[in-house]
Design goal:
By secondary structure, the protein is α/β, with parallel strands linked by helices. It has 2 domains: about 35-115 and about 215-250 and about 285-335, Periplasmic binding protein-like II (D-Maltodextrin-Binding Protein, domain 2, 3-Layer(aba) Sandwich), CATH 3.40.190.10; about 120-215, D-Maltodextrin-Binding Protein, domain 2. The chain contains 15 helices and 10 strands. A 5-stranded mixed β-sheet has the order 2-1-3-10-4, with helices on both faces. Strands 7-6-8-5-9 form a 5-stranded mixed β-sheet, with helices on both faces. The N and C termini lie far apart (about 60 Å). About 40% of the residues are buried. Residues about 15-30 have low confidence and may be disordered.
Length: about 325
C-alpha cells in the first residue's frame, strides 16, 4: 500500500539524488574549465598574449599563462629543451638552431609577427662602411638577428672576425642599455620600441632589415614535439586564444587600448607608444591571425646556410621545422 510516509521518503530520496547529480555535474564542469597553466618562455612578454589575458580571452579558453622572461636566446633554447618552459616565443630561426645544432626535437607551430629590425649605430657613424674595425653587439652570435647583421656587413665586403668583431650581450633591452653605456659598442640590430628609443637618444639608423635585406625575420611560437603530442588540446586552445588576441590587437577600434597597454607594459610615454603603434601595427608588423610566413622562413633558412657554417652552404628543407596541424585545429575552433 502506498502511504503518505512512503511518498515522503520517495520524494526525499529523489531530491537527494537530484542534488547529488547536479553537484556532480557542476564538479565535472569546474574540472573541465579549470584554468591550465602554460609556461611561455620569452625575452619580452608577447603583447598579443598580454592583451588576450587582460581581455579575458585566455580565461575563456581555460588558459593561465606564466611568463618566463629570460635574458637571452641561448638560455631560452636551453630552458625549452630541458622542460623548464612549455612554449617559446622568439625569432623562429632559434627553432632551426635547436634542431640543427643540438638535435633537439623542437617544432614551429605558429607565426606571429615581423620584428621590424633596424641596424642602429652610435652617433657619428654615417654608414655601414664606418663599422670596419669596430665592435658590434648581438643577442647570440649564431642565430636570428646576428645572422642578419653578418649578412648586411658581408654585402658591404666586411667579414666577421676579420673586419669587425661581435660581442654577445643578450636580449634587445640589454643591447640598448649596453650601447647607452659603452660608446665602443658601435652598432647592433634593434627592434621596436628599442629602436625608437635609440633614435630618440640620438643614435642613428643605418636602415631597416626590410630595406637592407628585402625581408625580416619572423617571430612566432615553437615547442618541443613530445610536449605538443602530450598536450595537444592545451596547445590548440592556447593558439586559438593567441589568434583571437592578435585579431583584437590589429582591430583599428582597439587602437587606444593597445596604446595604453604599450604604455604600461613597455613603460613608454603616450607619444612614444603612439609612435610604436604607427611603426609596428600600421606597418604590418603583426601577421593577420598570427599566420606563419613560409616564404620569409625559407629566406631565413637560405640566410642561415650562407652565413652560418656547419651545413656546407646547403639549405635545409623548410618542412623539417614546422607542423601547422595544431594551428589549423585552433582556427577551426574559432572560425
Amino acid at each position: 500500500m502506498i502511504t503518505k510516509d512512503w511518498l515522503s521518503k520517495v520524494r526525499r530520496a529523489a531530491s537527494l539524488a537530484f542534488v547529488v547529480a547536479v553537484a556532480g555535474s557542476l564538479s565535472a564542469m569546474a574540472q573541465e574549465h579549470a584554468p591550465q597553466k602554460i609556461r611561455v618562455l620569452c625575452l619580452n612578454w608577447p603583447l598579443t598574449v598580454v592583451l588576450a589575458q587582460s581581455n579575458g580571452i585566455l580565461a575563456r579558453f581555460g588558459i593561465e599563462v606564466e611568463f618566463m622572461v629570460v635574458p637571452g636566446s641561448d638560455v631560452l633554447r636551453s630552458n625549452l629543451a630541458s622542460g623548464k618552459g612549455d612554449i617559446a616565443f622568439l625569432a623562429l630561426d632559434n627553432d632551426v638552431a635547436m634542431a640543427d645544432s643540438t638535435g633537439a626535437d623542437a617544432v614551429i607551430v605558429m607565426g606571429g609577427e615581423s620584428s621590424l629590425n633596424e641596424l642602429i649605430a652610435q652617433p657619428g657613424i654615417k654608414s655601414i662602411a664606418d663599422l670596419r674595425g669596430r665592435t658590434l653587439i648581438v643577442d647570440a652570435p649564431n642565430t636570428a638577428y646576428a645572422l642578419q647583421l653578418k649578412k648586411v656587413l658581408l654585402m658591404k665586403g666586411l667579414q666577421v672576425g676579420k673586419d669587425y668583431s661581435i660581442k654577445p650581450i643578450g636580449a634587445t633591452l640589454l643591447r640598448l642599455q649596453a650601447m647607452r653605456e659603452h660608446a665602443e659598442y658601435a652598432a647592433g640590430v634593434l627592434n621596436p620600441p628599442f629602436s625608437i628609443l635609440a633614435r630618440h637618444d640620438g643614435m642613428i639608423s643605418l636602415g631597416s632589415m626590410r630595406t637592407l635585406l628585402g625581408y625580416d625575420m619572423d617571430r612566432g611560437t615553437f615547442v618541443m614535439r613530445g610536449w605538443a603530442r602530450e598536450h595537444g588540446d592545451l596547445l590548440t586552445r592556447y593558439l586559438a586564444a593567441y589568434v583571437e588576441g592578435q585579431r583584437e590587437l590589429l582591430a583599428p577600434s582597439n587602437k587606444q587600448q593597445v596604446i595604453s597597454l604599450v604604455m604600461k607594459e613597455l613603460n613608454l610615454s603616450e607619444p612614444l607608444a603612439t609612435e610604436w603603434y604607427t611603426t609596428v601595427i600600421q606597418s604590418d608588423g603583426y601577421a593577420p591571425d598570427a599566420r606563419f610566413d613560409l616564404e620569409a622562413f625559407k629566406k631565413a633558412l637560405i640566410l642561415r646556410a650562407e652565413v652560418e657554417p656547419g651545413n656546407g652552404g646547403k639549405t635545409q628543407a623548410a618542412e623539417k621545422y614546422y607542423d601547422l596541424s595544431y594551428y589549423q585545429a585552433a582556427l577551426a575552433k574559432i572560425k
